[in-house]
Amino acid sequence: MKTLYLFEIEADEKPIFDIGEWEKLQNLTHEMGLAEDPSVVAYGEVKGGKYIELYDKAENPEFH
Fold it and tell me: Which is it for strands 50-56 and 28-29: parallel, antiparallel or unpaired?
């Protein structure tokens, strides 16, 4: 899991979710093995003011 600071991603123009917000979303994941595509679609905040890359979750992750 790659972690970034906000200043590294602000200009990326992708959604940025707060701690607790992105974990509730069923369509996003931070695990590449569960991702439909390796393209980053958003960022999620984690402890320490850091952020992780989020991906669209595959409908059937066992096939990826």
Answer: antiparallel
For 13-23, the pLDDT digits (tens) are 899 999 999 99
Using alpha carbons, list the distances in angstroms from residue 63 to 36, 46, 58. 10, 28, 9
Give the type of residue at 51: Y
Decide if 55 contacts 28 (C-beta within 8 A): yes
Report the predicted TM-score, pTM, of the whole model to 2 decimal places.
Answer: 0.84
Per-residue confidence band for 1, with pLDDT thresholds at 50, 70 and 90: confident
- Burial (CB count within 10 angstroms: exposed 0-12, middle 13-18, buried 19+), residue 63: exposed
Q: What count of other Cβ atoms lies within 10 Å of the Cβ of residue 30?
A: 19
CA distance 51 to 55: 13
